[in-house]
Design brief:
This protein has about 90 residues and is mostly helical. About 45% of the residues lie in helices and about 0% in strands. The relative contact order is 0.05.
């Protein structure tokens, strides 16, 4: 009987804690403000900043792939081998 009471009190305490924490996350957020994209004097979006080429994901789909959706396991292993060979060692 004592274990049931302890379990029930634990559940009530947990639910009370969750009820207290949830509104804080919601009320702590600021209201949505309109965001304006920075523009150059020409009026086009300003893309200045730090850019990195540290990805092997191409910006455009290679035409050689055609309608191919997935790589075979052998092609995937080859791509991983290429990535491993490009890793810099310290």
């Amino acid at each position: 009987m004592r274990n049931r009471f302890a379990a029930a009190m634990g559940a009530v305490a947990l639910l009370s804690l969750l009820a207290l924490l949830l509104p804080v996350g919601v009320t702590g957020q600021s209201p949505a403000k309109s965001f304006k994209v920075a523009r150059t004097p020409d009026g086009v979006p300003d893309l200045q900043g730090f850019w990195s080429n540290s990805t092997i994901t191409p910006l455009e789909r290679p035409k050689a792939l055609g309608a191919k959706e997935f790589y075979t396991p052998a092609e995937l292993a080859e791509a991983h081998a290429i990535i491993e060979s490009l890793q810099f060692t310290r």
